[in-house]
Design brief:
Elements lengths: L3 E10 L2 E11 L4 E5 L6 H9 L6 E6 L2 E5 L4 E2 L7 E4 L11 H11 L4 H14 L15 H13 L5 E5 L7 H18 L2 E6 L2 H7 L2 E6 L2 E6 L1 H6 L4 H6 L4 E11 L2 E5 L7 E4 L8 E6 L4 E4 L7 E10 L4 E7 L2 E7 L7 E6 L5 E3 L5 H4 L2 E2 L2 H4 L22
Parallel strand pairs: 3-9, 3-10, 7-8, 8-9
Antiparallel strand pairs: 1-2, 1-4, 2-22, 4-5, 5-6, 10-11, 12-13, 12-15, 13-14, 15-21, 16-20, 17-18, 17-20, 18-19
Bound molecules: adenosine-5'-triphosphate (ATP) and magnesium ion.
Length: 393
């Protein structure tokens, strides 16, 4: 199946730029996630690919097929894009049965009745809802409705899937099951998928690649491990989970090796960097699980005091006072003494940039001249109306 390429999408609403040169590629058969806080432009990006939103600038291709090109005024209608879409709201029609909802994309493509019946039965089996074909959406739980929305997205045999927070209404346990189920389905079908979420655990569990968005821009991309362990900026480090930050000055200790000098950390905090950090203050990100607490005076460690311990079920979260620094560390044991030594896993500290001023990270005012020449492109059909009758799972 061909790759999807998104090239410099831009969109301004009023004076707010919500897509700022968004570019990325979804390689064949891969699972790529747009991850970011509410309002950062995830749905606008996804709906642009789906054809339910027409951005003001940029281009979108699916293999050799140009779906959208603002400069050339090309805009393929949504129903001709051969993509399967699951909307943030599921968007099931409450007055149609499950099989009628799922068969809808086939109906608008004028697929004959026998083939429609066969396909609907096949995808409902795939999502394990064949036995509810005659039910209406309000008779199904939220989780089941999300599976119906997925079946509908798959019904016409799309060559890519676009999923907008498809598990948003599930409780934690069901979400985990749905994740595993969708991951297996996606791998079995080998279908290129763009997944949208603001849940970092979900993104890390499911994705081949994560694109972290903020203020209409992609600010970091890579495998889950890359973005988690090498976030590059404070924003990404914090968005992907708990993180400590240590600020000081860098001293070179060898080729590509440095130590961060800061009060309370005798000997410095070792870190590696391909290029020397710029002179002045340097900030390191250190994940709480990279800190080991012990009381063995013969082993290395910085002296610290545990000021608070929170029991989180499968682990403890310790708050430490280390010189002037307040740090968090994860542990599996309750500590018997507040005086501890803190050791750091080799290679765990990484340099992060301070994020730009809030004005730069929030959706920001656009330069009107930059977008003036793209002009309007043909109108697109809207997504179906959402079902308002879902009941709790
Ligand atoms: N039709 C519209 N008119 C004006 N502003 C809009 C429109 N659609 C989206 N926006 C604004 O664009 C920004 C990005 O919206 P978008 O729906 O893409 O965010 P999101 O990342 O999907 O957020 P969420 O996680 O809350 O779903 C928001 O500030 C939103 O208010
Ligand atoms: Mg959204």
């Amino acid at each position: 199946m061909p790759e999807i390429s998104v090239d410099r999408l831009s969109q301004t609403f009023g004076s707010t730029r919500v897509l700022d040169e968004v570019s990325f590629t979804v390689p064949d058969g891969r699972f790529v996630t747009l991850l970011g806080p509410s309002g950062c432009g995830k749905t606008t990006t996804l709906m642009s690919i789906a054809g339910f939103h027409t951005p003001q600038g940029g281009a979108i291709a699916h293999g050799d097929h140009i779906l959208f090109d603002a400069a050339r005024r090309r805009n393929v209608p949504a129903e001709q894009r051969e993509l399967g879409v699951v909307f943030q709201s599921y968007a099931l029609w409450p007055h149609l049965t499950i099989e009628q909802n799922v068969g809808f994309p086939l109906r608008i493509r004028r697929t004959d009745r026998a083939e429609t019946r066969r396909r609907v039965a096949e995808v409902l089996d795939l999502v394990e809802l064949g036995h509810r074909a005659k039910a209406h959406p309000h008779e199904l739980s939220g989780g089941q409705q999300q599976r119906v929305a997925l079946a509908r997205a798959l019904a016409h045999g799309p060559s890519a899937l676009l999923l907008d927070e498809p598990f948003s209404n599930l409780d934690a346990k069901l979400r985990e099951r749905a994740r595993e189920w969708l991951g297996e389905l996606q791998r079995d079908l080998g279908i290129s998928t763009v997944f949208v979420t603001h849940d970092q655990t979900e993104a890390m569990a499911m994705s081949d690649q994560i694109l972290v968005m903020n203020g209409g821009r992609i600010v970091r991309s890579g495998t889950p491990q890359e973005v988690y362990h090498r976030p590059g900026s404070r924003f990404v480090a914090e968005f992907l989970g708990r993180c400590n930050f240590l600020t000081g000055t860098a001293r070179r200790t060898g080729p590509g090796a440095f130590a961060l000098e800061a009060p309370g950390l005798p000997g410095g905090v070792p870190f590696r960097a391909d290029t020397a950090p710029p002179p002045g203050a340097v900030t390191l990100a250190v994940r709480p699980e990279a800190l080991t607490l012990h009381t063995d005076e013969t082993r290395p460690g910085w002296r610290a005091r545990v000021t608070r311990t929170t029991f989180l079920g499968d682990h403890y979260l310790h708050t430490l006072q280390l010189g002037p620094h307040i740090l968090q560390a994860l542990g599996t044991r309750h500590l018997t003494t507040p005086a501890v030594l803190v050791d750091l896993d080799a290679g765990a500290a990484t340099v992060v940039t301070d994020d730009p001023a809030p004005d730069d990270t929030a959706p920001h005012d656009a330069a009107p001249s930059g977008l003036a020449d793209t002009g309007p492109v043909p109108a697109e059909p809207g997504p179906p109306e959402p079902s308002t009758t879902s009941r709790a799972v």
